[in-house]
Amino acid sequence: MGEPLERTAEQIEAVRAAAKAAGRTDVPRIQVAFRPIIAPTEELAWEKARRTVGAIRELGAAGLKRRHRTDAPQNTGSQRLIAIAEAGERYDRALWTATAAATGGAGNSNALVGTPETVAQALLDYYDLGVEIFSARGYDLLDDAIDFGRYVIPLVREEVAGRDAGRAAARLPLPGGGGRMTSVAETPSRAAGPTVVHVPVSDPRVRPLLRELGHEYSTRYGRDAHAEIARYPDEEFTPPHGGLLLLLLEHGEPVAGGAFRRRDATTAELKRIWTHSAHRRRGLARRVIAELEHEAGTRGYRRIYLTTGPRQPEARGLYLSTGYTPLFDTRADPETIGPLPFEKHLPLTTSPGKATDL
Fold this sequence. Notes:
By secondary structure, the protein is an alpha/beta fold.
């Protein structure tokens, strides 16, 4: 069940201590379960949460909703949920116990309430404690499952990939003691990172990038993607004009890439950030962004600007998590904004690069 972070940490330590005392040499994997309640803004999410509790109470009064007696639940899990709800209604980043109180602690009834970004970060808080397996189902089973899969899981996968890549590089153990996260993220390990190369747009190895970006734009926005792909001439992504296009190659094949163009004398604009569909969840997009930022800095740019579409929550989460400042109201429905702009100011010094012009 989903409990506050402090209690979860205590439970994890107790389980590990019991496993060690029993002579186990491996580390038990930890699972938590929540009922996510998400919406495009925090206000809408909490309105939805309150409606959910109202519906639970109405169904319970009519005898149509499974509910434990709050005075004497018979299982330890429900007893813990009731005790937590009695002690407080809101915990940590997004945990809400009113749903558990309304059901008498039936099932996994504590909720995580907020925008997809808030709920994703709440899950990551548990991941950082050592939780590896997440179970999530909403109160509106079908629609909530669709929204969770579409808007929350991609954000968590990207973040977990970045965390695991960083730990692997530093030779640190994963939060769970060496296991891997199931369902929400699968992060393949790689002995060596991809090679970074700078290429012209005409290079044949760029074609998979353009092809997959075109498909994604058409799928998400239902319009001809060619206009967006062809919006800027190729020359804007070549060094004489202040731009650059780079690819990450693995065994000679492109697995990720991106570009920047000159926006003004001190600002580079990131474009075409892409990870091959067969190589996602590895933190490659973060690598691309870091390489582009480094190259822009070495060419004298002091600021990065970029936009992403309102139907690409994983991209929005990526930029927020890599230090970009949103130039829009993050509480508003993205569909009412259109392209979502971000910026980041670069440090005055940069570290040596490792890319090769080919």
